[in-house]
Amino acid sequence: MQASVKELLGDGFTDIQGLAWGGFLRTQAKLLRTLDAELQAGHRLTLSEYEVLLFLAFAPQFRLSISTLATSVLLSLSGVSRLIERLARDGYVQRETSAQDHRISYAVLTQAGLAKLRAAQPTHLNGVRQHFLRHFSNEELLLLAKFWERIARNESGNDGQGEAEKEAPASEKEVRGRGRPRKGGPGAQPRKGLEVTFDVRTVALLDAVTDNRSEYLEGLVLERLEGRKTAAEDEMRRKLEERYRGLPGTVVEKLRELAAATGVEAAYKASEAIMLLLEQNDQANTNHH
Description:
Helix content: 55-70%
Largest sheet: 3 strands, antiparallel
CATH class of one domain: Mainly Alpha
CATH topology of one domain: Arc Repressor Mutant, subunit A
């Protein structure tokens, strides 16, 4: 004989409350399992791994501390560390240590990671539409969005800062419930205009205002990711040009050829190795004299 929701949850809930809460838990668990299974089947990527790549794609310089990621994807520090190690083995992220504080580690999205995210995005977004959004009208989705917003607004004042968030630099503190960090630190004014996030609320709102033209969201996402990639490459190119001033002309010529053939990132890494060798030679000559 199947037990009722009230019997399972106890006397602390009314029948209506038990149905609402139990239904939410069952639906969330089923949706997350389904979305995770689709990503693993189509891209050999878990839902948590997808979320990490997503947060990194929208972070400044494609870079976030491990503690910030742990808070963002609701995993423990050890759990997200293991996840980052798996992504690093696959070449999707790189792990770096802070130059100022060796206790702080960072994850940096690679070009391979960005490509992996782009490939997985249609699968994930289509899954959200298929398994969740299609069951509701736009009016119902907007009503759901208001419910989530009410909970987020009421609960945000009750949550104390966790240790991971206290340690994270201000520029990396996440706006909870959003898919991107807010620039300017605590108390910064929300940006005006369209915010590109990846939660269900935004997919619903964008579909509503675009007459359910799903390709609008994918195009907007890809445009934002491409802009991030271009900005990062421009910054790397600027730093490389500065390095050229301290290198011999023949070396600069070879680095320019490398940048043209394989990209500015390869030339930048090569310049780091060359500068290190030059410093070691200078140190050896100084010691010799």
